[in-house]
Amino acid sequence: MHPALVNRKGPILLHNNDRSHVAQITLQKLNKLDYEIMPHPPYSPDLSPTEYHFFKHLDHFLKEKVFINQSSVENAFRKFIDSRTLEF
């Protein structure tokens, strides 16, 4: 879906906005290592527990699964969503 991200030579780093991650010395080191830093939305404490709950269960559901194409990933995600209760 994002060929520019896939067809890259170097690594791309996505991390949160923790102080140690955005400190000047850290950013200088990442630039020196030629890492591109993907922008991350500002931290929202309101979303954190929900995201943790959702992704923890999604990670468990997808564990040890192998996908051969985009549609198999989408189908697995739909299966995960359909397997959850409304209370989830």
Automatic annotation (TrEMBL):
Q: Which InterPro entries match?
A: RNaseH_sf (IPR036397), Transposase-MT_Hybrid (IPR052709)
Q: Name a single GO biological process.
A: methylation
Q: Which GO molecular-function terms appear in the entry?
A: DNA topoisomerase binding; double-stranded DNA binding; histone H3K36 methyltransferase activity; histone H3K4 methyltransferase activity; single-stranded DNA binding; single-stranded DNA endodeoxyribonuclease activity
Keyword DNA repair set for record: no
GO cellular component terms, alphabetically, are: condensed chromosome; nucleus; site of double-strand break
- Report the superkingdom from the record: Eukaryota
Q: Which UniProt keywords are listed?
A: Methyltransferase, Transferase
Q: What is the name listed in the Swiss-Prot or TrEMBL entry for this protein?
A: Histone-lysine N-methyltransferase SETMAR
Gene behind the chain: SETMAR_103
